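Hello K.,

You asked for the raw outputs rather than the summary table, so here they are, unedited. I folded two proteins back to back in the same session to keep the settings identical. This is the first:
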Amino acid sequence: MARAKYPLRAQAKSKNDVMKTLFKLFILAVCLCLVASPTFGQETDEAQTYHVHDYLLVAPGNHADYLAMEKVWKKIHQANIADGKYLYWELTEIVMPVGSNTEYNYVTRIAVRGEENLAALMTGEIFSGNLTAKLTDAEKALFQRTGELRTYVKKEVYTVTHLLPAEDFKDVNVSVMNHFDYPVGSGHRAHVQMEKDIWDPVHAARIKAGEMLGWVVANKIMPGGAGESFHDVTVDLYKDMPTYLANRSPMPHFNKVHANKNINDLMEQTEAAASLVYTEVRHTLDASNR
C-alpha cells in the first residue's frame, strides 16, 4: 500500500482536520474488514489440523481377521474422539497399484488438531489408559493379535493447504492420491499457486457437474528432505469406483474452463511447478463417523 501523504503544516487547519478524519475512517474500515473476515478468524483462533497416515501390509490369508481387528480398533478410535483426543479416523485399502511387490495394502488416517495432540499421537501417549475396558472377550482377543495381523510399514504427516469440497463430502469412498515432487526453481508455494490458478476452476466445474465430490491440495510435512520422492499431494475425491472410472479425466472440463487460453502454455506452467511422481487409488472401507 502506498505511503499516506500528510498535509504540510503551512496548509489550512481545516484541511488538516479533514485529512485526519478520513485517515481515521480508513483505519476503522480496515479493522472492520479484518474482524468480519472468516479467513482472518481461522488463522488466529484455530489450531492447525494434522493428518497422520499409517501404512500397513497385510499378508495373504490374514485379510478377514485384519479387517475384524480394525473393527475393534474403531471402537477405541471412537472413544478417543469422544474424549477430544483427535477428530477423525479412516481405514482405506489400496486399489492401485497392487501386486506381489506392493509395499503396503492398507492405510489408516487420523486427524488431530494442534501440536500437543500430534505429539501425543506420534509417541503413542494418546492411546494411554485401559483401551480394552469396553471390549468383549472376543474383541480383546482380536485386539491382542494387532501386531500379528499386519506389518507396520511407515508413517507420514500432512497438512491441508487447499480444500474444495462438495456438500456431500462425507460420502467420499474413493480417493485418488497424486504425489508431486518440485522441479528445480519451484517449491510448495509455487506448486499451490499453480494448482489454484490452473486446476482449481477445473475441479470446481467437475464438482458442479456431479463428477467429483471434492479436491484437496496437501503438503507432506513429515518425513521431509531431498531424499523423499514427493512432497505434496493432490487428492481427487469420488462417491464410488464407477463414478471415478467414468470421470477420471479432467480434460473435458479443462478445455472448457480454459477455452480462451493456450493449453500448451498452461501445461508447461503446470510441469514447471510440479512433477507427478505416481498416482495411487484408495477405497474407503470404514471411518469413525460411519
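The second followed immediately with the same parameters:
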Amino acid sequence: MRLLIFITGLLLLSCGQNSPGQKDTKAAKDSTVTAGDTTTQKAQVNATDSSAPVVSPLALRVNDILETQPGNKWHVLNDHEAKWIKGQFDYFIAPKRKEHPDYPYIATADFDGDGSTDIAAIVTDDKKINFQLVIIRNADEKTPRIMTWKEDIAEDAAISVEPKGVVEGMDGEKTKKISLKADGINVEYFETASFVLYWNGTAFKRIQTGD
C-alpha cells in the first residue's frame, strides 16, 4: 500500500513540473523579450533615419549638375550641416521657408538677364569646412555654365533674390547706386552684414548693402 502511494506521488510531481501552463508562461516570457528587442531595434533605425539631412528636389538637381564637373566635391548645404541656432532658425528662416522651401540655400531667377533661369546655391565640400556660392547659368539647358563666388561665403549665409532695380550700398569706401538690369543675389548674415551680387554684362560684381 505504501509503495502504491509513493508511486502515485511521483507521478503527480512529474506532471506538475511539465504542465502546459508553465510551458505557456515561459513561451510568453521569451516572446516578450523578443518583442522588446525588436522594438528597440526599430527605434534605433527610426532615430537614425530622422537625423538624416533632408534634400529637396531642387538641391538634388543642383548636386547632379555639380557631379558632371571633373573632380567635383561640392554639394548643396543643408540644415543638418549649417547647424542653425534654434531661435535664429525659427525667427529668420522658418517664416520665409513657407514661401520658398529651399531658403536659405538656393535661389532661382534670371541673374544674367539672358531670359533663361539661373540657380544660385550655397555649397560645401565633403569635409564641410569650406563653403562657396555657385551660380548655374542657363540651368535648364543640357550644358549649363557654372560660376563660383568664394568671397565672404560661410555656413550661416542666407541667399535670396534681389529684384532688379536700384540698389544703394558701398563699393569700397564710396557710396554707390547700382541699377540692376537683371535680378541680383542677396547674400545675408542675419543682423550682421549683407551684400548683393549682380551681373554687369561680363561678370558678377558685389555691392555691400549692410554692415
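The two ends are 109 Å apart (CA to CA).

Happy to rerun anything if the numbers look odd on your end.

Regards,
P.
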